[in-house]
Amino acid sequence: MNEKLLEIKDSAIRQIKEASNLSALNDVRVAFLGKKGELTAVLKSMKDVKPEDRPKVGQMVNEARKQIETILEETKVKLEKEALDIKLKEEVIDVTLPAKKKKVGHSHPNTLVLNEVERIFTGMGYEVVEGPEIEEDYYNFEALNIPANHPAKDEQDTFYINDKILLRTQTSPVQVRVMERQKPPIRMIAPGRVFRADEVDATHSPSFHQIEGMVIDKNVTFSDLKGTLTKFVRQMFGDDTKVKFRPHHFPFTEPSAEMDISCFKCGGKGCRFCKGEGWIEILGCGMVHPKVLKMSGIDPNEYQGFAFGVGLERITLLKYEIDDMRLLYENDDRFLEQF
Q1: Average pLDDT over residues 311-329
Q2: CB hemisphere CA count around 244 (13 angstroms)
Q3: Contact, 190 vs 129, CB < 8 A?
Q4: I want to staple 185 with a disulfide (CB 3.0 to 4.6 A). Which of 44, 217, 251, 270 is the partner?
């Protein structure tokens, strides 16, 4: 028995020294000290030893086990240190290398322009108001002097949910809602998303954004409208910008006009950007129709007002000289990173 224990111990020590990594060392531990290990098998065979020899044999087995465990632990510590040293060498950090740059997003060109528009109008004392995108037919059409079967509805063909609910075609309904709940004076702009059943092309989209403004007060005239919009476009496109008003028709304003601005690319001389005309159409405007005031609970004999509406995308296209509106919606980083 003594010779067998010495043989097991010598074999274990030899294999422990030959172990090159922690996995191999663990295999040695299992082979000799595991449940089916060689030293464990000797303990299980104690029943075959004479009773008077069992204490001595047991002591010999425990001493052999203790020696093997001691060498195992010492070798484990040594191999762990070697493994750590190798890992540290492989994962060394070169602090002289440039740090990884974090890619930080920025505002969309539409957002940049909207912020600029809001800054200009709030600087003139206007309030920014928002309203629902899913709107009642009454607020989107009837309260704006566009009754059922009016031809203007064909120009603003939209998406109906039912006979009375639709996706708004303009942000003018927000103006009506403000007039119903607030007494004049009123100075507001209403930016937001609108919807029309348009085909997608370079200048049209079924979903786009509008900014509509309105002023209601006593003794408001068309001159106030012209002065306000002139100040707006000059702050947006430059102090040299000229304006021109052309007669037009809108059901909710009377008189009505479309406003052109001198081409800021050529100074009004005519170029490819303005198609040789020297002028660029930018928005529609007019004096609020007395019927619209009356339907909203405001006395047209005491108060007057003006309103205007401009497409946010149109300003963005002009300001940044973009020739295709679809670029604003495609989320192409190569395009958006320019702004």
Answers
A1: 90
A2: 11
A3: yes
A4: 217
Cβ atoms 8, 39 nearer than 8 A: yes
Binding site residue list: 254
Report the candidate in 285, 305, 135, 313 with the shortest Cα–Cα distance to residue 212: 285
Q: Where does residue 285 fall: left (phi above 0), alpha (psi -120 to 50 degrees), or beta otherwise?
A: beta
Q: How far is CA 244 from CA 120, 240, 301, in A?
A: 20, 13, 29
Residue type at 172 in one-letter notation: S
Joined together, the tokens standing for residue 251 give 């059901």
Both tokens of 106, joined, read: 């920025």
Cis amide prior to 185 (ω within 30 degrees): yes
Answer whether 213's CB lies under 8 Å from 259's CB. no
Angstrom distances, CA of residue 97 to CA of 264, 288, 336: 47, 65, 29
HEC readout, 178-217: HHHHCCCCEEEEEEEEEECCCCCCCCCCCEEEEEEEEEEE
CB atoms within 10 A of CB 113: 24
- Residues belonging to the binding site for Mg(2+) are 254
Taking only the tens place, the pLDDT of each residue in 235-285 is 998 888 899 999 999 989 999 999 999 987 777 788 877 788 889 899 999
Beta pairing partners, 140: none
- Tell which residue, 172, 151, 128, has the closest CA to residue 285: 172
Reading the block at residue 213, the tokens are 């403004």
pTM, to two decimals: 0.67
Residue 255: asked if its preceding bond is cis (omega within 30°), the reply is yes
Give whole-number Cα distances, 118 to 177, 194, 337, in Å: 20, 18, 23
Q: Which CATH architecture has domain 109-336?
A: 2-Layer Sandwich (3.30)
295: which residues sit within 8 A by CB, 6+ positions away? 142, 143, 145, 176
Task: Say if CB 253 and CB 302 are below 8 A apart.
Answer: no
* Cβ 304 vs Cβ 271: under 8 Å: no
Structure tokens at 335: 């395009």
- Residue 12 CA to residue 312 CA, distance in Å, equals 82
